[in-house]
Amino acid sequence: NQGVAIYADYEGHRVRARYFEPARVEITDGPLAGKSFKTPTGAVRAVVRHYNPTVNDNRNGWSFWQIDNGTGARVWLQSIRPDGTER
Length: 87
What we know:
This protein is an alpha+beta fold and 87 residues long. The protein has one helix at 40-51; strands at residues 4-10, 13-20, 24-27, 36-37, 66-67.
């Protein structure tokens, strides 16, 4: 299982990662590369804290990460979220 390629754009930075069902996210590039999180929200909060430590990091990861499908179309991670998974 190679996971699903995802990314998040935040404060002018694109952070690439891989999503593994039901909810794990591993960041694959940038300053947080190699870090793994139990949920998409945990991962995106780490991204926000890294780039903008003075703001509230409360974000919903399911509606922050996008699927890197190669088309340029915006497809949110929420669209493939398994039922009943935690934020």
